[in-house]
Amino acid sequence: MFFNLIVNKFIKDNTNLKDDKVRNSYGILGGIIGILVNIALFVIKFIVGLLVSSIAIMADAFNNLSDAASSLITILGFKLSNKPADKEHPFGHGRIEYLSALIVAFMVMLVGLQFIKSSFDRIINPTPVTFELIPFILLFVSIFFKIWLSRFNKFMGEKINSAALKASSTDALGDVFTTSCVAISFLASKFTTLPIDGYIGMLVALFIVYSGFNLVKDTINPLLGEAPDPELVESIKRMVASYDNIHGTHDLIIHNYGPGKCMASIHAEIPSDVNIITIHEIIDKAEREISEVLKIYLVIHIDPICVIEGESQAAFEEILSIIKKYDYIESLHDFRVVGEGEVKNLIFDIVINPPKNFSITDDEIINNISTELKKCHSSYNCVITIDRHFS
User: Fold this and answer.
1) Which residue numbers delimit the Cation efflux protein cytoplasmic domain (predicted)?
2) How many angstroms separate the CA atoms of 84 and 106, rounded?
């Protein structure tokens, strides 16, 4: 409820999440609040760390400072990713948001690595930590601030599907753990002279590095080309198949050029006897309407389906019975029979979905199917194209 009040106060037309300007405003607001909260926490913890001579608290303080810098990078990422398309980048600059999240992740890891060294030095050369009640209370106050910031960033990230804000939410939640450990070590210093501060500082630093590593993995996936959102995949297939004379779809490929910036291509199966002008108008309408609804750039390729009857029908059913023997073959499409006389070519595509550690090559798959067919019809030859899922 309180998050919605903040959004309503600072973002105009905040329900229009498809608008790039509104989405940009969400990212900038999240970044600004992240900067303010983290700088405040850095100042508090830095002063406390100096007063009580705690390396663990100092490590946690500089972790907050890196979070403030991360929020600044997030703002810059949203600003730059919202630049319009140009000649060099015809699909826009949306992937800059992923790059900004990646920079944030590496900064988190760098802070952790620096404090691994500092904490190790403190273990080798321990310095007494002086427990004081007011600094201890301030540490707990900072924990509640981080819990609030994590929930706020998660709320904003889910609103606009932002990898950068979701990464900031995860990072803030990790800070709750690290600050809690620091607070426990600070309290323990009141009851023991053991160098707990250095060990807790090491634990905090290792956790920071681990969090940064996880953020790197999460943010690098879309840059490498991860599988698209299953909901978007199903929406495209369902909507394309809903138009007249489109009997099926296959070969859907989706390219991600940043949050909310996707280019997709799909093959639509249409009867070969439909007038070319008629089907062109249908496809043109489908591309335009689906692109508008889903906020993507959609290209539809036409695949004419030959009428299957008589000898073609028998051959089609024969091939279907063969491919059912192979669990990794999902479907068959674009089937046609070419040739005169007894010798004919059966031309078709198959879609495979191999399990992990699948070792059979494409040539072996084609050879297996061809061999099975030859057992029944020695005059038939297979011309097979193998497709794989890109969505």
Assistant:
1) 228-304
2) 27
Phi-psi region of 341 (alpha: psi -120 to 50; beta: other; left: phi over 0): left
Domains 2-224 and 311-388 share a fold: no
List phi, psi (to 5°) of 20. Answer: -60, -35
Q: Encoding tokens for residue 362?
A: 């494409």
CA-based max dimension of the chain: 97
| Cα–Cα distance measured from residue 236 to residue 294, given in angstroms and rounded to the nearest whole number | 8
Residues in the chain: 391
pLDDT one-digit tens code per residue, 287-322 = 999 998 888 889 999 888 766 666 678 888 888 888
The DSSP letter of residue 390 is: B
In the chain, domain spans? 2-224, 230-305, 311-388
Asked if the 311-388 domain carries CATH number 3.30.70.1350, the reply is yes
C-beta of residue 338 within 8 angstroms of C-beta of residue 315? no
Q: What digits encode the pLDDT tens for the residues 164-202?
A: 788 778 778 777 877 777 777 778 777 777 767 778 778
* Cα gap 385→362, rounded to integer Å: 9
89: helix, strand or coil: coil
What's the token pair of residue 168?
Answer: 């900031």
Phi-psi region of 246 (alpha: psi -120 to 50; beta: other; left: phi over 0): beta
Query: If you classify domain 2-224 with CATH, what class do you get?
Result: mainly alpha
Q: Which helix or strand (DSSP H or E) is residue 168 part of? A: helix 163-188
pTM beyond 0.70, yes or no: no
Beta-bridge mates of residue 350:
332, 386
Query: How far, CA to CA in Å, does 328 sit from each of 271, 316, 350, 351, 363?
Result: 28, 19, 10, 9, 15
Token pair 């249908």 is found at 282
